[in-house]
Write a structure and sequence with these properties.
Nucleotidyltransferase, domain 5, DNA polymerase, domain 1, 3 domains, five-stranded mixed beta sheet, two-stranded parallel ribbon, 9% strand, YqgF/RNaseH-like_dom_sf, mRNA binding, RuvA_2-like, structural constituent of ribosome, RNaseH-like_sf
């Protein structure tokens, strides 16, 4: 769930199959569906050339950057087909095999039907496979954690306790990463601390009616979202292009004054935070004395350290510190290896 997202790329999702054909969905960098199709490059049809023609058309038409292949039935054959196809086109396109665990559950779910009422169940799976590469966390929260497949003996466990534990893990993941208040789905918002499913829907409804949130305080205008809920959730909800750069950090609104005092004492401004011009802030604080500064701005030392960390990297995504997804082109056999290649072995 904490696999780093692949941002700003147009992705073609490929849900492999044999008899019923491979389903395709192309999504833009925001996850919006641009195109869908069904091709038959695998047995028993083996319409490889016809499938290549369709894929080339979709790649060219939509400026596809990456192909996301589900790892289920016929995945290997589909990977070979895609690798061969990429050798025949001029555009630099990569591919990656992603886990499709739970994709079929999402496609047949009420949520899947609400999101894509006009789509066939299999095409919804292709959309999910494409989006999983773009932002695994945002897509996986749409399904029951138990459907992801967390162990061979999960069905032998107490299902209530298992559900609560897995739900807690998902909640920890979502809150540690944070959520963009202006793009998050109700499914994602419902895992934020203090936010129920009803409040999550109200947030989206408010956003659709009044436009993008400009500041965190606007949350208090959302139906059923009171002061206590705001206190619990505000620090986990981000506004990247808001009126206050602190709204794009995990600094809680109750610590805004402390953050501003810190900047003032050290000779910086909120504009410096926005422009990422805080070189030397950490060193200046250490030199002055972190305990002294903490006392002066009215917070504890651990809170001060957290504030400094967030000010230095507004919009920080902890997933960016993890190993990036491995994007491939054509290394499928030993014969594909060439002198100078550097490969990551899984």
């Amino acid at each position: 769930m904490l696999q780093p997202p692949v941002k700003g790329k147009t992705v073609l999702g490929l849900d492999p199959a044999y008899r019923t054909g491979c389903k395709i969905a192309v999504v833009d960098e925001t996850g919006k569906v641009l195109d869908t199709a069904v091709i038959y490059p695998t047995p028993p049809q083996n319409k490889v050339e016809e499938a290549k023609k369709m894929m080339k058309h979709l790649i060219e038409k939509n400026n596809v950057d990456i192909i996301s292949i589900g790892n289920g039935t016929a995945s290997r054959e589909s990977e070979i087909f895609v690798a061969e196809l990429l050798k025949e086109i001029d555009r630099k396109v990569y591919y990656m095999v992603v886990s499709e665990a739970g994709a079929s559950v999402y496609s047949a779910s009420k949520l899947g039907a609400e999101e894509f009422p006009d789509f066939d169940v299999a095409l919804r799976s292709a959309v999910s496979i494409a989006r999983r590469l773009q932002d695994p966390l945002a897509e996986l929260v749409k399904i029951d954690p138990k459907a992801i497949g967390v162990g061979q003996y999960q069905h032998d466990m107490n299902q209530k306790r298992l559900g609560e534990t897995l739900g807690g893990v998902v909640e920890d993941c979502v809150n540690s990463v944070g959520v963009d208040l202006n793009t998050a789905s109700p499914s994602l918002l419902s895992y934020i601390s203090g936010v129920s499913s009803a409040i999550a829907k109200n947030i989206v409804e408010y956003r659709e009616t009044n436009g993008k949130f400009r500041k965190r305080d606007e949350l208090k205008k959302v139906k059923k979202l009171g002061d206590k809920t705001f206190e619990q959730c505000a620090g986990f909800l981000r506004i990247p292009d808001g009126d206050n750069v602190l709204d794009n950090t995990s600094v809680h609104p109750e610590s805004y004054e402390a953050a501003k005092k810190l900047l003032d004492i050290m000779g910086y401004s909120l504009e410096d935070v926005k422009q990422k011009k805080l070189d030397g802030l950490k060193e200046k604080v250490e030199k002055t004395g972190i305990s002294k500064i903490a006392e002066e701005i009215g917070v504890g030392v651990p809170t001060l350290r957290d504030i400094i960390k967030e000010l230095l990297k507004p919009g920080r995504d902890p997933r960016d510190e993890l190993p990036k997804p491995i994007l491939l082109t054509d290394v499928l056999h030993l014969e594909d290896l060439r002198p100078g290649m550097v490969l990551t072995v899984l």
